[in-house]
């Protein structure tokens, strides 16, 4: 069945989602804020669609590409909000006047509580179910766009995508709708499961910090996984992952280790913390960020690891490695990421809830 899909965000992930939906035959609108229109959006509008290479190939038409949010949301049935964590709240403000009962909003990926952050920004109560709002555990692609209306999809996986609505009582309808695009989506018990299953803060900060000097010296001219994940980097990834798994266990949420989910999703062929990444077919050819001040630190530390450790403190789970990474990243970036508190229990309005109440959301 053809549905009207609106994709909010025209970066790497937004381009991949828009292309995939359009190639499946759905009507797609693509929106970006005016200050980012020069990145992909103008080119997509000029040529009438998106060109992809890699795991997804060809040209797919886009019905609307522009900065008019009302036009982009006109007739929308499924709305994918795709972007880094720091874009979720601004997009929530943008969309608030245009949300209508019957719409489904997917924060893809949730990047640790994205659905909660979106609802708060859009002025919706947590338990408001007039509009279905949920999140995925990750973006189902490894992809890069060139800013000229083209996207390279290195990998697109069919298994290992977890999703949950807020409130979780809406999971049945949310999954039914989301599976029209991603048929193998797995129901997560709660958005805390999708949040804790997020692997980016486990991998990206560790590899970035262990290669910080190389990144600065070469402007990121090396292969992030193939060359950046050495045994030392792997040990740091494993230490962060162990703490993440401990947080999930204390909360009563079941998640997979990062290498195990990587194998399930087809990125990796072996479940270990070193060669599992450096020899992973799904990560082959992906370059490092061109600057140290990238989302691999600003998002994956400033939002996700800060969120993980804030939740951990509530559960009395020690996180010495995560804490160290937050501190070192703050020094490297010249910011106090902990004090900024970009995404915390407080910023999500969850300060007064017990662990049991959190799981009931």
TrEMBL record:
The keyword Oxidoreductase applies. Residues 4-108 form the Glycerol-3-phosphate dehydrogenase NAD-dependent N-terminal domain. Keywords: Oxidoreductase. Transmembrane segments: none annotated. Residues 188-332 form the Opine dehydrogenase domain. Coiled coil: none annotated. SUPFAM superfamilies: 6-phosphogluconate dehydrogenase C-terminal domain-like, NAD(P)-binding Rossmann-fold domains. Signal peptide: none annotated. Pfam families: NAD_Gly3P_dh_N, Octopine_DH. This is Octopine dehydrogenase.
């Amino acid at each position: 069945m053809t549905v009207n899909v609106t994709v909010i965000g025209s970066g790497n992930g937004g381009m991949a989602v828009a292309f995939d939906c359009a190639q499946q035959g759905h009507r797609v609108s693509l929106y970006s804020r005016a200050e980012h229109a020069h990145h992909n959006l103008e080119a997509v509008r000029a040529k009438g669609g998106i060109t992809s290479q890699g795991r997804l190939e060809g040209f797919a038409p886009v019905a609307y590409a522009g900065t008019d949010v009302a036009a982009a949301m006109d007739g929308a049935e499924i709305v994918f909000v795709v972007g880094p964590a720091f874009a979720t709240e601004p997009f929530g403000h943008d969309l608030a006047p245009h949300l209508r009962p019957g719409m489904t909003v997917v924060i893809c990926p949730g990047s640790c509580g994205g659905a909660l952050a979106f609802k708060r920004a859009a002025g919706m109560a947590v338990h408001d179910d007039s509009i279905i709002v949920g999140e995925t555990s990750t973006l189902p692609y490894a992809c890069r766009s060139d800013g000229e209306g083209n996207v390279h999809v290195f990998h697109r996986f069919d298994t290992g995508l977890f999703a949950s609505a807020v409130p979780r009582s809406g999971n049945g309808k949310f999954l039914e709708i989301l599976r029209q695009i991603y048929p193998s989506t797995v129901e997560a018990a709660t958005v805390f499961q999708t949040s804790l299953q997020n692997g980016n803060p486990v991998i990206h900060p560790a590899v970035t910090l262990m290669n910080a000097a190389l990144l600065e010296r070469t402007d990121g001219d090396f292969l992030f996984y193939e060359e950046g994940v050495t045994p030392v980097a792997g040990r740091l990834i494993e230490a962060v992952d162990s703490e993440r798994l401990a947080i999930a266990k204390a909360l009563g949420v079941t998640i997979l280790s990062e290498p195990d989910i990587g194998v399930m999703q087809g990125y990796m062929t072996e479940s270990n913390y070193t060669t599992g990444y450096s020899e992973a077919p799904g990560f082959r050819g992906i370059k490092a960020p061109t600057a140290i001040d990238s989302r691999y630190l600003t998002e994956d530390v400033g939002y996700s690891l800060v969120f993980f450790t804030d939740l951990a403190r509530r559960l009395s789970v020690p996180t010495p490695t995560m804490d160290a990474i937050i501190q070192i990243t703050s020094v490297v970036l010249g910011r106090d990421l902990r004090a900024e508190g970009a995404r915390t229990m407080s910023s999500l309005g969850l300060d007064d809830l017990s662990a049991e109440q959190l799981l009931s959301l």
